[in-house]
Amino acid sequence: NIGKKMSCQQFIANLDQLNDGQDFAKDLLKTLYNSIKNEKLEWAIDEDELRKSLSELVDDKFGTGTKKVTRILDGGNPFLDVPQALSATTYKHGVLTRKTHADMDGKRTPRGRRGWKKFYAVLKGTILYLQKDEYRPDKALSEGDLKNAIRVHHALATKASDYSKKSNVLKLKTADWRVFLFQAPSKEEMLSWILRINLVAAIFSAPAFPAAVSSMKKFCRPLLPSCTTRLCQEEQLRSHENKLRQVTAELAEHRCHPVEKGIKSKEAEENRLKDHYLTFEKSRYETYIHLLAMKIKVGSDDLERIEARLTTLEGDDPSLRKTHSSPAFSQGHGTVTGSKAMKDTTGPDT
């Protein structure tokens, strides 16, 4: 739909020396250019499927049996349309009151949709389900429950210290930069939710994709995969540490070239957005590293032991006391230990 389209020669020139310092074969690039020109690039799913309900149920085969999985669309991005098994491990559940603070890309939620609503929250696998009725492991999720679901891959939960209207409020920022406020019944529950959401995100979030190659100066956040990492926990920790070093170096380099204060321009806004992004990513990976290193040091998958250890090392903080839903972690989101955790995951697949 653009007026002046890129020529084949321009396409080839844009990719000069991007093959590990060498040029790609021109015949290969010509073939690729003509392929894109003749057949436009399509989304992973078509527009009709995008218009379907957020709670579309699909069948997926696991071994010999057939189980239901839920397809959840995050915003309008079809690349995040990854099926999630409903038989995943339940890591925590309890009452939370939610307020939607910002929509995708951090855009302020319209006033009419910012009200507080009470839910029964269930952190299951890497999804936080918000249900209207009390959690029962053998109960099927309703369409409304699925529409309210939030993915916590690459998310960061923190105490909402800048929000003073209510007590015991945590802030959850997701991979697509939506922001939610949750009020817990107590300070203990608030920090327990923060710990478990961040620990789930630290253990299971797959490494981020490399940044896109572009000649545009506009800042764009990289796409964060919603699939589960294939790395073991020690490798995952090293991956987070490498990412933290990269982000820290990039932030230092970015701040070496500040935009003059008081200037209102696109360049200044891009500079501000990038600084905000890098600062948030630095904080996120620091949190992931701290929690994952602690879990490995404790040498247990039991969340009660991990919370108790954090209490011991970080002071006599009542926020890390044991809670009622304390399963163990498993890399595949399936096997858990303890009678309560088994009760949470032995219900029928729905």
Automatic annotation (TrEMBL):
Residues 89-202 form the PH domain. GO terms for molecular function: guanyl-nucleotide exchange factor activity; phospholipid binding. GO terms for cellular component: ruffle membrane. InterPro entries: PH-like_dom_sf, PH_9, PH_dom-spectrin-type, PH_domain, Sec7_C_sf, Sec7_dom, Sec7_dom_sf. One of its GO terms (biological process) is regulation of ARF protein signal transduction. Its main location: membrane. Residues 325-338 have a biased composition (Polar residues). Residues 230-257 form a coiled coil. Keywords: Cell membrane, Coiled coil, Membrane. It is found in: Cell projection, Ruffle membrane. It comes from the Eukaryota. Residues 316-350 are annotated as: Disordered. This is PH domain-containing protein. It comes from Diceros bicornis minor.
